[in-house]
Each structure stands twice: as C-alpha cells, then as structure tokens.
Design brief:
The complex is a heterodimer of chains A (199) and B (824). By secondary structure, chain A is mainly α. Chain A contains 7 helices and no strands. In chain A, helix 2 packs parallel to helix 6. In chain B, strands 1, 2, 3, 4, 5, 6 and 7 form a 7-stranded mixed beta sheet that branches. A 5-stranded parallel beta sheet of chain B has the order 9-8-10-11-12, with helices on both faces. The chains are: A mainly alpha (199), B alpha/beta (824). At the A-B interface, helix 1 and helix 6 of A face helix 2, helix 4 and helix 5 of B.
Chain lengths: 199, 824
Amino acid sequence: MTKLPKTILTLVLFLFVSSPNVGQAVEFGLTPSTVYGMWKNINDAVLVYANERSTNDTWIRNLENMPQDKFSGKAPANVLEQVTQFNTKLNEILQNKEAHLEELLLEGDLSNLLASSDDNLVTPSLVYMHSGQVLINIVEEIVHNSPTGINISPFFDVDAFPDKTPSDVFSLVDLGLRYLDEILIRQEAGDLTTGKEPR
Amino acid sequence: MGILRTLTINRLGKGLISSLILVVLITIGTNWFMVREVLTLSTAWSDKEHSIVQKQAYLSVLRGSIGYGGMIHNFKNYILRNDKHYLLNAYRSMLEAKIIVNGYRELGISAEERTALKELGSVIEKYRIAMARAEALFAVNSSIVNIDNQISIDDKPALRALEKLTDAVADLRQSKTDVISGEIGSLVNTVILAAIGIGLLLLIMILGLTWFLRFRLINPLDELVVAFNHVDLNDPGLIRLPSTGVSGDELAMMANAGNRFLDTLETHLAERQQVRDQLLGAKNEAENANLAKSNFLSTMSHEIRTPLNGVLGLAQLLTDTKLDKDQRRKVDTILSSGQTLLAIINDVLDMSKIEAGAIELENSPFSLGDLLSTITTPFQSLADDKGLQLIVKDLGARKPVLKGDPVRLRQILWNILSNAIKFTEEGSVTLTIADIDIAHNSIVEKKTYGLHFTISDTGAGIAPDRIDAIFGAFTQEDNTITRKHGGTGLGLSIVKQLTELMGGTINAESQMDNGTVFNVYLPFDTATDEEANAISLRKVYDSSQKTEPLNVLVAEDNEVNAVIARAFLEKFGHSVRHVENGKLAVEAAKEGWADLILMDVHMPEMNGIDATKAIRLTELGRTLPIIGLTAEAFAERHVLFKEAGMIGVLTKPFTEQQLADTLATHRLVERRRVPRIEKTADTSASNLENVAVIEDENPSKFETLKDTPPASDRPSPGDEVKLTALRNQLDSKTVSTLLKETQRSLRKQLDELRQGVLDTDSKQIHGAAHAIRGTSGSMFAMHVSNLAAAIEESSTDIDTVQQLLAELEFASKDALEWWQKQDA
C-alpha cells in the first residue's frame, strides 16, 4: 500500500472514530508483557549498536553489566514519557539521521488510534507502537552501519515475559536511557566511531 | 359505577388534573423511552459502524502489511537481493500486521473471522521464522537458490483469510443494516403504539369528560334552569328543584340549597300574606269603621238632631204656655241643655271632619266687610244682653274683595268672638283687622295678602300655664268652666286647625284678670277685578238684566217647592215645566224640550237618582244638565247623586241667589244679580240656618250656621225675615200663590198623615211627613218642618208618631194661621 491511500484511509478512520458519536479508544490488545519483550530487544539492539561503534570492550562490558533498576507504581503514560526521552537521546546520538527517526510505526498516524479520544489515555498498545518505531530506528541504524555483519532477526524475536507491569517496562526503558547516556557521553568524548554516512 | 354516581365537580377537577399529570407523565415517559431507544439505536449503529469501519481499515492495513509492499513482498526482495533493508521492512510490516491482527480481535469477531485471523497469524509467524532462517542462511553464504528452495511458504492461506475477513465485514455490514432496520421498524412500531395508546387515553378522557359534562352537569343544570323558570314566586312551594340525590354532588347541594331557599321564601311569603291579609282585614275594618263612623255621624245628624229639634221646639212651645216659675226654670234648662247638646254635636262633627282630612277649603272671592257684618250683627245683640261693648276696628286699606274660604274664616271668628263674649262679664270685646306683610313669619302659606285678626276681651283671662292647652281638643282652661259655661272644649281646637289648614297661625296672650288676646294670622289671595266686580254687583239687584231663556224641567213632588222653583226660574226669564215624579221626568226628558232639569232626589214612583240614571241612558239625556234638589246636607250623599249623573246639588231650602249661583256655577245661565239679604243688627244666628249649601260645601258649615241660634231666639210659627226676603225676591202675587198653595198642601198632607197613623201605615206616614217637612220648610215654618222631620224619622214607631202628631197638629195650626196672616 502506498503512503497516500494509507494516509487517507487512516485519516477517514480517525475522523470517524474521533467524532463525538464514535468517541471510543482503539485498543490493539497489547499488554505490558508484550512491550516488555520488545524493550528487551531494543536494549539488546542498543548494546549491539554500542559495540559496533566502540572498540572499548571494558566499556561494552560495563554497559552490558549495567544493572536494571527497580520501579513501581508506573503507568503506561510514565513509560511513554521515558520512551519519548529515549527517542530524544537517540536523535542526539544519530544527529544527522533525525529524519527517519521521526517516523513512527504505521507511518506515525496509527498511533493516534491508540489514544482515547476522550481522555488521551495512554495504553500499552500506544507505548508498543512508539517502542516498535524505536526498535525499527535503532535496527535500521545498525543495518545501516553494518549491512551484512549483524543479524537483525533476533531483535524481532517474540519471547514470552508473562505478568509484566508498566513499572517493569519503565525499568527497561530507564536502562536503555542510561545506555544512551553512556553512548552519548562517549560520542561527545570522541571515543566512538562515527559510523556510515547518513542515507 | 359507584364512583361515577358520586362524581362531583370537585372530584372531576381533581380527576382532570390527575389525568393531565398522568398524560404528561405518560408522554414524557414515552418520549423518554423513544429517545432512549433512538439513542440506543444510534449507539448500536455507531458501535457497529465503528467496528465495521475499523475492521475495513484494519483489513486495508493488513493487505498493505502482508501483501505488495508489505511483509511478503519485502521478504522476497530480501531473498533475491540479500539486502537487510528489505528484511527490516519485512519485519516492520510484520510488526504492523501483528498489531492489526491483535487489534482486529479486540473489535469482536465471529468464529469465521477468528479462524481467518488465526490463519493470518500462522502465516505471519511462518514468515518470521522464515526471515530469521533466511538471514541465518545468508550469514553462512548460502546461495539464493538454495535459500529459496529451503524456504517455501504457501501464501494462499493468507489470501483466503483476507478474503474471508473481507466477506465477514461485508456480511457484518449487511447484518448491521438488517438489524438496524429491524430496530428502527420496532422503534416506529413502538412510537405508533405509544401514540395510539396516548390517543386512546386522551379519547377516553374526552369521552369521560363529555359524559360527565352532558349527564352530570349540563342536563342537571338544564333541569335546574327549567325548574327555576317554573318557580312561581307567588307560590314557591309548588315547584321543587330536581336533585340528583347523590350526596356530595354540588348540583344536588345547589338544588337542596335552592329548595331550602324556596321553603324559606314560601314561609316568608305565607307569613307576609298572612300579615297582608291581617292588614287588609284591618284596613277593611278601618274603612268599614270609617264608613260606619260617617254613617253614624250622618245618622247622628239626622237621628239626634231631629228629635233634639223636636225637644227644643216643644220646649220652646212650652215657654209660650202659662207656666209657674219652677216649670219655666225647668223648661229654660231643657232649652239651654238642648242647645248645648246641639253645639256639641256640631263641634264633634267638625272635629271628625278635620281629623279625617275631609275638609276641603274653597278659594272663592268674598267681601270681607259683608262677612264681618254677618258675624258682628248677631253678636252685637248678645253683647248688648250682657252689657258688653262690642267694638270692631278695621285698620286696613285693602281691596274690599279677597279670595279664600269665607265660611271657614267666619267659623274661626265666630268661635273666638263667641268665647270672648261668653267669658267676659263686663267691659268690652274688640275685633281688630289689620293688614300684615305676607312675608310675616306667622303666615305659613305665602299668598298675596296677609290679615291679622285680633280679638281681645276684658274677661277673667287665662292662667299662663293653660294658654297652650286651650287649643287642645276637649280642653278648657279648667273644668269649672265646663260646668259654668258648658261647651265641649273643641271650639278653639277647631279654630286652630282650620287656621293652620288655611296656611295661617293663631296664638293667645292672656293675663289673669286682664283679659285675653287672640291673634289670628291668615293669608288670602286678592280677587281679580272681574271677581271683585261680580261680588259688588251681587249687592245691586237689577231685575231688568235678563239672561238667555232656558227650558227648565222641575221634577218635584212637593208642590210648594215646585212653586218656589218655578217662581224663581220664571223670574230669571226661563220657561218652567213641572212634573211630580222621576218617571214623568224621564218621559219629559225624552221629548227634548228641557235645557235643564232640577231633580228632586226623594220622589214617589221613581226617585231622582234612578230618574237621572235613566235619563243618562237616553240619547237626548246624555248631556242634559241635571241639578239635584235635596234636603240632605252631607257631602257623602251628594257624591252618590253626582255618581248617578247629576252635575250639581242644591240643598233645600234654597234662596233665589243660591239657585242663580248654582246655574251660574255650571254656566247654565249668566249669574243672576240679586240683592243681597242685608243683615240687621237683630238678625240672629238662626236666621242663617237656611243658608243653602251648594254642591260640596262642608255640611258642618250648614249645621253650624243652622244650629247655632242665639239663646234669645224664641220659636215662632214662621220665619218672618226669610219670608220678607222672599217677598223681596218675588212679586206679591207669586208669594200669595205660594202661601195659598202651601196651606192647601199642608192640609192635604196632614190628612194623609192622619190617615197613615189611623192605618198604622209607616210608609204613608213617612211619605206624608216628608212632604209636610218640605212644604213647611219651604215657606219658613221651621217648627212644623222639624216636627214633620221627627215623624218622618220615627215613622215605624207609631207611639212616637202619635205623640209628635199632636204637637204637629198644634204647630200646623199656628203655621196655617201665620201664613194666612202673611198672605193678608
């Protein structure tokens, strides 16, 4: 499907479902456990990315051994906020590659379906959508930097992590943010390789 | 039905309000139900539409994610080119497809959709596995052909699943349309049913209201109105207002209240009718009593005064006989007492008239000087007898002729002067006449002229505390006066009331031992020049003044009266025809000869009243003037005569002047100018007794003048003064004829009377006595006339008649001798 019909269709769908008469939230049935599995893959992808750009094994190992903090009482909105921060930092790291980082999954429009038209309720599905786009972006960067060297399929594995909560997801995103903080520090210190030119 | 029977307006009102509230609630409920149904339908439609639209959108996304440009397409490119960007895009599409499949499940799916989604999920998972294996194979540098051979995935299940989902969405839309249409139809049916239900409810309410209004309100109200219209206010008990008989029904309460009102009204009307009947009875009794009183007074006038005249006459006759001293004293006492009694009767009659309001004052021209002379002349002799000086002072400068009631004025002055002379033993009695301003406070009725009469005496006077009482009825200064002077005490009361009737006032001033002064203030009108001239001309008889001659029929059974009437009428220049009874008068009237009839009331064959009625029934007699001749002085009787058709009544005996005046009054002839009978100083009051009363004159005037003779008057066979006056009016031949005819008639009538007594024939006695009464009275033999009247009144009592007849024989003998002497 080309972008135009997709966009029109999505827009019509949005207008219809966001009308006062059909003001209902769209839920894709995705759970914090599903989002949790995706962020496992994202953090793995970040470590692979760091490893691609650094030859400092110690630093890599420190990253890999960076502990995951415990959080509680977090809601999907808190998680989404962390995801947004993650994206911001990822943009800083990728610098000249912001253009394709702004695209969201399903061309960035379907995510609107995931929010309640009444109260903008942030659902796990919305967090999943944003997280999926993050995953695509980071994997794309990995692919861009190493077109053949790294298998990306593991980043799309679906592992079962039953009974995870938004706090658990928040903890993983927080870990990923700290990875990015470390990468950004290293990148600003000039300790990382530059990677390929932007597409 | 019990409720309906007891349905009242109050309950109806409450019921209507409740029903309206119920209808409103039902309407609101129905509307709410319909709105809810519509909202539910709308929500269901929205939900289903939202679901369908989402599913359609998801399907579109799924086709893009899985098909061309999606997961399968990118995967195949990856196999062919070994470019991980295609692999990444394949993963990206896979993620989208997985999200959409999950989301599709959340929209609510059918079993068919579930199967299709399961197949799609299975295909997506196979491709994920295949993408991982292909990447692994590329990692170990396997050839594309080898990889393609090792990885082979059947795409058809995915395509079939997509087709199934597409068909399911289409079926869902159709189903939704059917369901919604059904629900709309159901809703419409519900709305129709609700409308029908509400309409039926309103119809039932309207029918119920109509029923109530018709049968419980309008019909009963109509019945009430009809019943009310039939209520007879004169007898409200005849109609009862219809009651529905339902307790608590307002109309029943109204009907019951109306019936109670009618009952009360009936009771009140019955009571009022009872009171009215009582009042009517009382009125009738009063009228009967008044009539009885009038009859009594009339009877008393005739029944008492006639025998009293007999008593007085006999007593008078006795005084002419030889009596010893004691006998004379007793006869004098009889005379005095009789005269007193006669005065009392006259006063009582006058007072009764005044109290009954039966006195009507006349307003006729009169000469004050002449009137005064008729008063002072008789009193002069009385004053002379007592040694008193009677002084008359006329201080006025008025016209000689005034208009008023001369008879009543004379009565007033007569009474006061009479009292003054009566209560004055020495000195003088003075009558002063002066003019006063008509605006004087003492004149109540404002006319054109005021006179002030002052009667003062030098008598004993009246005690100051008794001054006001002397004008009361039956009041004298003290009781000793009655014993000393006699009288009823009515005189001054009559004077006061007559004065006030004439629009004047009267008062008295007195000091003990210094005499009394009476002041009388009276208003009069001034006579016109014509009236004054007429009065003046009456004093000058001009026999040459003849009038238009009339044919006069005289119906009179009494020959003497007939001769007198003929003599006067012929003297006036009229032609006279005489008939002796009413029957002949009727026959004569039919001939058309007569211009006027003088009709005696009491006649044989047919009396004057019946004759008058008969004449009025004839063509010629309808407008023929008829004047009654009667000896009855009472106006009540005169009314009867007029009702019979007489235009006037002339009381017998009458003078030439009275006959002339009567004719003039009725414009039958020009008033005759005859010389007035000049009163002389020795003319007694009895001389005035034959002054006739014309038409409605108060009989009391006649009685008063007739029966107030001075004490010095002595009975005589005849009244020479009147006979002299008659001689002045007629020629000597006529008078001679009259005297002869009178003697002949009297003898004849005496024979009839004697025969009647012998035969004890009361009718003949009555007729003969009546004839003698008229004959003798006409020629001024009043004693004979009085005795005949007494016999006439006692005609059924033979013993009394016999006693009176003896006296009549004696008196008749004297009268016959007197007439012979006069004729000679």
